[in-house]
Write a structure and sequence with these properties.
about 160 residues, mainly alpha
Length: about 160
Amino acid sequence: MRTLLHLARRFFGWWRAGRPDPPMQLWIGSCLGPAEARLFWEQPVQDQAHAAAVGAYVAQRRPERGDLIAAALLHDVGKAASRLGPVRRSLATVLGGLRLPMPRQFSAYRNHGSIGAEMLEGVKAPAIAIAFARHHGGAQAPSGVAPTDWTLLREADHGA
C-alpha cells in the first residue's frame, strides 16, 4: 500500500514540480562531481525536484555522508532514458505490474534502476550511489551496503 501512495504522490506532484531554486542548485552542484551533476541536470525538472528533496532529506540527517547524499540525488537518473511523462510512466508501471508486454520506452522506464546504475558506473559515482540506483525498489540492503544507510535512503525516497 505504501508503494501505491508513493506512486500517487509522485504522479500528482509531477504537475506542480519545477526546477530546484538557485540556492538548491548551488547546493546540488557542491554535492556532485561534474559528470554526476551533468547526469542530474539531464533529468526532467520533475525528477530533479524529487531528487533534490530526497537529497535534502538525507543531508538533514547525515550531513557528513556525501556518498549518501550523492546516492539520494542520483538514484533516478536512469528515468531520463525513457523520455516518458507522468501518464505514460503510470501506464508503464501498470503494464509491468501485470507482466504484460510493453514498448521499449516503457521497458526503459521500468528498468531505470539498472540503466541509471550503468550511467553512474560510467562516471565513477560512489558505490552506494550505484547500488541505490540499481536496487532502490528493494526493501533489503544489497550486499556491501549498511542496513542503516539503506533504510535512510529508502525513507528519503518514499518520504520526499
